[in-house]
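Let's practice the habit of predicting before peeking. Look at the sequence and jot down your guess about where helices and strands might fall. Then scroll down.
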Amino acid sequence: QVQLVESGGGLVQIGGSLRLSCASSGRTFGRNVHAWFRQAPGKERDFVAALAGTGGTIYYADSVKGRFTISRDNAKNTVYLQMNSLRAEDTAVYYCAADGDSWKSSARLRVVGEYDYWGQGTQVTVSS
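Done guessing? Here is the structure:
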């Protein structure tokens, strides 16, 4: 069983930055796929970014490409999401997800059901 604990959410102004962290208890952390999803009120949970396991291939949703950066620190068993140039539409609860697979296709890693483990979520609110 893998536990994921997110932190770093909060209230930020439009154009500001936040860095989310996701600490994992997984013993094979560096070989697993990790991702960030987000869910706005009344909407489905949407893919934001993913980092494949051993190869480290990175994928982003079009809506965050160029503004968000996913990264991983294997020594700390932690995945990060650096969010810059935040917009009001980025407001959501952000969830960290992990799976035992070391690789997924670019289509599969965008699917909520492909992940076995989820964090509790952290609220990000972007306002003027």
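How did you do? The chain has a mean pLDDT of 94.
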